[in-house]
Amino acid sequence: MSTPVVLVAGLHASARTAAVDRLLAEHPGSVAVHHDLRSVTLDRVRRVVRDSSGTLDVADVLLAHGCVTCTVREDLLPQLVRLAATASLLVVDLWDSVEPRSVAEAIDCEEAHDDLRLTSVLTALDAAYLPVDITRGDRLAEIGKPAASGDRRYLAEVLARQLEYATGLVLHGGDEEDTDLSRTVLAHLAPVTPVHRVTGLPHPSGPTLCTAELAERVDPATAQLPCDAQTDEITTVVWHHTRPLHPARLFEAVDELVTQSVRSRGRFWLANRHERMLAWDAVAGVVSVEDAGPWLIALPEAAWDMISPARRTAATLDWNPVRGDRVQHLVFTGPDLDRERIHTLLDSCLLTPQEEQAGPDAWAGYDDPFAPILSLKEAA
Predict the structure, then answer these.
(1) Backbone angles phi, psi at 14, to 5 degrees
(2) What are the extents of the domains in the chain?
(3) How many CA atoms lie within 13 A of 141 on its CB side?
(4) What is the C-alpha separation between 84 and 15, in angstroms, rounded?
(5) Which of 215, 233, 326, 377 is deepest in the core (most CB within 10 A)?
């Protein structure tokens, strides 16, 4: 019988610790494993194993290949398998800036299926800090929370990924007003994810999570994006269109779009990159644009059998006999967003009817300011 495993992530250490403590207290025989990365820039990682009574074991772990992610995965999985023999529940207490997806996928491996059963991915959040932290453009290294030497990620970027990937969100700390505001923020950023207080955590026993399905919830081609919404001062604006975008005009609009909103993401179609889906991901004024692979219409039909049902379903929702699944689907969230202004700005970036009639051969010759960004990411 496999042992259930719960991942608890979160930049807010006090909230995460409170959630882990609660799990240990409520489930006799449970054990938590934590990798402390405070000394990671000195090539040291400390592993701490504990239960409800206190610390059971502390050990220093050498960095594998100079990579913290590899070290945590290669040390964590054997530890979990060893502990599964006697533990009723295993809790993985992730370091502040570790994103849960890579750890979840490492645990969900064939060699550990007989011993481990990943049942929940929780992200613990401090209600007093969440509404502010999701707007902060600080790098992790600037606030002392890097997960590796040379970690260039941003605080808000990691926080967004932690809460959008989770199967459950846990609020701790703050007063009633903080909690209400945090719930409102989360209802916009992760509207389908249940929100709990530390005193009401979901039971960890249950079926094994499929990490492939978890990934499809956040990957650009299949992401469960928020809908248009207005709650007090917080607004979510959805822009959906079926004409291609002019690369130069969109590039000129990027700064205004990312500074007006706190969080935006989605998939889009540049005219000069007719066959490629592009992913938009921005938080706290920092934007990332990446190639997310071919549109389904650009693939030979023989390859469609290898495409996941979720991808085919998402494509079907936007399908057109001529353009296939090519679409503009961007979502923006922030305080008091001007829906009309965002729509007008993005509409102005679309090809004109005359430009659209010229066709893909003409579009291919457009100047593309995104090319250096995309080339850099492809080479990385």
Answers:
(1) -65, -40
(2) 3-218, 229-379
(3) 7
(4) 25
(5) 326
Cβ neighbors of 300 (< 8 A, separation 6 or more) are: none
Whole-structure pTM value: 0.93
E strand or H helix at 208: none
Q: Which fold has domain 229-379?
A: Hypothetical Protein Yjia; Chain: A;domain 2 (3.30.1220)
Q: Where are the alpha helices (DSSP H) in the chain?
A: 13-26, 68-84, 100-107, 130-133, 155-165, 176-189, 211-218, 247-260, 309-317, 339-347, 353-358, 360-363, 371-379
Name the token pair of 319. 């399908």
Cα separation, 22 vs 14, whole angstroms:
12
In what side-by-side order are the strands of the sheet with 263-268?
229-231, 234-241, 328-335, 263-268, 276-283, 286-294
CATH architecture of 3-218: 3-Layer(aba) Sandwich (3.40)
Pick the closest to residue 256 from 339, 158, 127, 345 (CA basis). 345
Q: How far is it, in rounded angstroms, from Cα 319 to Cα 100?
A: 33
Distance CA 181, CA 234 (A): 10
